[in-house]
Amino acid sequence: RAAIAALSDQDFVARSRDHNAKTRARFIEAMEALGNYGLSVVPSEANFVLVLFDGALTAEVALNGIAEAGYAVRHLPGQGLPNALRITIGNIEQMDQVAECLRQMCEKAE
Fold it and tell me: pTM (2 decimals)?
C-alpha cells in the first residue's frame, strides 16, 4: 500500500528525481575535482555514483575512511570492480561530507 501510495504522489516522485539529479551532479563535480588524485566517475543517471580509484587512495582504504566518518558505501570486488565504490545519493550535507572525507584521504595518500 505504501509503495502504491508513494508512486501515486507524482509531486513527490518529481521532487525526489530533481533532488537526486541536482545532488548527484554536485557530488560528481566534487569527485571530478579529485581527478588529479586518480578518482573518476562512471557516467550514470542512477540514484548512486560509481567512483573509481586509480591513484594512491584505494577503494578499500576509502571505504574504511568513509565508514569511520559514519557513512556506509558499497565496495564492489565481488562484481569485478575492486577499485570502485558505489555511493548512494543522500542529502546535500551528507554528500558534501563524503566528498570532503574523500578529499582529505586523497591528500593524505599522496
Answer: 0.89
In angstroms, the CA 86 to CA 52 distance is: 9
- Rounded to whole angstroms, the Cα distance separating 31 from 52 reads 10
User: How confident is the model over 18-50, as pLDDT tens digits?
Assistant: 999 999 999 999 999 999 999 999 998 899 999
| 103: nearest Cα among 25, 33, 52, 28 | 33
- What's the chain's Rg over C-alpha atoms? 15
Answer whether 87's CB lies under 8 Å from 48's CB. Answer: yes
Helices (H), 1-110: 2-8, 10-32, 59-68, 92-109
